[in-house]
Please model this.
Amino acid sequence: MDYIAINKEAWDKRTTVHVKSQFYDLNGFLKGNSSLNSIELEEVGSVAGKSLLHLQCHFGLDTLSWARLGAHVTGVDLSSEAIHQAKSISEKTNLEATFICSDVYKFAEANCEKFDIVFVSYGALCWLPDLTLWAQIVANSLKDGGQVNIVEFHPFDELLLGSAYFGCDGPRVDEDGTYTENCTGVKSKMITWMHPISDVINALVQAGIYIESFNEYPFSPYYLEGFEAAENGGYQLLHAGHAVPLVYSIKGHKNR
Model:
């Protein structure tokens, strides 16, 4: 089963829907808004004058938001439609960026550049079958002492929905819609993998990344079905009356 071809087709289809959605608010971005949230802004810190690699960048709003903050950005995504849209938005906003259409693993085979920061965020890791190889790619893409920032959806939510957290080596095959408000009638076959957080952390450590911090958050910046408004302006999910973790972040540096 060619998971890359299947997922590329799904994300090509999703992109055409996402660029028109209120969820992504492309019109607001074109007027100068940022798509970044407080979690990643605080975790990553100042990017002015730094080179930043954004793996699995979708159609580039977060990538270009870092460019607005002064970073020299490169975004990578497997969807040709997403990369086409990213390049178009870059031109419309006069924000300099390099966008590369490739899956993460093939990108690493050709990449020779070293970056100050590698950034991965929100719903990226579930599309990757091999975290050990992914973490080595992250490390190989960093300069000595370079910084990696992962901001990801917590698997606790998927666990409550019935997904296996441990002991599931095979992929999950679904045919589902997308998460934006204009998704009616849009369904695609998708192949994903569940990854325990310990696997993410251990893969990074084994690749030579020193973990500076690991944080969990009882809210998400994004609404999904079953969530309710939280006091901080985000969204929470309650289980037995208690807020469950919905996002986690990892900050690390490549050992010198």
